[in-house]
Structures are given as C-alpha cells and as structure tokens.
Amino acid sequence: MRFDILTIFPESLPGLLSVGIIGQAQEAGQIEVHIHDLRDFTDDPHRAVDDRPYGGGAGMVMKVEPFVRGIEAIRPECGPNTRTVLLSPQGRLLRQRDAQRWAALDGLILLCGRYEGIDERILHFVDEEISIGDYVLTGGETAAAIVVEATARMTPGVVGRFDSIESDSFYDEEKRLGAPQYTRPPVFRGLAVPEVLQAGDHARIKAYREAEAWKKTARNRPDLLGLDLEETTGDG
Ligand code: ADE
User: Fold this and answer.
1) Among the options 32, 128, 168, 172, which is catalytic?
2) Which one of 153, 176, 209, 212 is the catalytic residue?
3) pLDDT digits 0-9 by tens, 201-233
4) Cβ 224 vs Cβ 230: under 8 Å
C-alpha cells in the first residue's frame, strides 16, 4: 500500500514513520510513504501557500490551488483504488474501522492543513474529511502520521501475528478496549503481576483477560458500552 502526504513541513514526518513496525514495513516493501512539499505545487515566485480570509478575520487560510495541483501530480503515480483524505478538526472522527477499510486500498493521499485551515473548495477534490479527535492541533501532520500508522498496521503482513491485532483495543467492532498486559519482574515495588497470568492455564487466562478488558472499558470508556454518555473529565 502507498501513502502520499502533502505538507508544508515535509521534514516533520520521516522520523516518526521510519522506526518500528512502520519503518520495517517500508524496508520490506509492504508499504511506501511518499512525502511531498506543498510549496513544490505553487506557481508564484514566493511559493505562497496561504492568503487572507475572504470576509475578514484573524489568521491566514491555505490556498486551494497548491493542494489540487499536488493531488493531480501524485494521482497518476497511485493505483486505481486510491482515496484522498483531508485531515482537519472539522472532519468525521477517525475510527478503527476506517483504518481497516483503507488498508484494502492501493493508496491514500493525505492532505495536511495549517493556519486557519484550507479553502473550503478543497472538499470538491477529496473523498473524505477526517479528524483524529475533538481538539485542535497546529496542523494535520501528526494526524496524517496517525492515519498512516493505524492503516499500515492493518495491511496484511505488516504486523507479524494477527492475534496481536485481534486482541487490540477497538478491533472487536470498536466495543471494548484491550486487556491490561504485564511483563517481568513479577513483583515491582510491591505490585504483583496477577497470579492467573503466571500460572499458564490458557483457558483461565483468556477468561481473565476478557473480564479485565470489559472492566477497563466500563471504567475508561463507558460511552463504548452505552453505560454513561456523560463526559468523563479524567480528574475525578
Ligand atoms: N488539524 C488540526 N486539528 C486536527 C484534528 N483534530 N484532526 C485532524 N487534523 C487536524
């Protein structure tokens, strides 16, 4: 699978995406990540990517032309089954099932906005507008890295053992979180690893993990269980 990222900060992404499983997947040729400098698709001497907002207001708005020229330059390099995704805080919330759906594609073209966002006409040139959460970042680059990570690890062969994906938080129809995990030492500052995990009875371990996963979901994400739709602030 191929990822193309359009950004004014091309230097910001390779570090994060060249390590660990995502880095190995690139080395093994399972995924390709191409990072493009949005300014290469400008046509003025100043390589301007932003301008003042129509109607007034603070800040600058990203121009639509460099993004569209970029998409049109990249598109012929991509397979027929490629989608263009705009990262923005106004988008639909990213879900695990999006990563699963995208992992079956030939590619994703990811557009990173900055400043006060991109000229709204960009929506005529993208397939999806996605937000990674209800908070505002300074730009779409970290969001694009998250989309690459989440999608690449669902691409066949990228994560070695499929059961490690199946036990993930959200894999189970996004209804529950993953179970707590432990490793050595067996006791750390008086905190012991649960006995059942050390005893080697696989049926009991499975049941224990299942129960703990549900408990953790009820505690941290009651909304997933339809238990409590009140906001949990995390400070109580
Ligand atoms: N750009 C700025 N904030 C964002 C968010 N929450 N999700 C995706 N892109 C963004």
Assistant:
1) 168
2) 153
3) 999 999 999 999 999 999 999 999 998 766 556
4) no
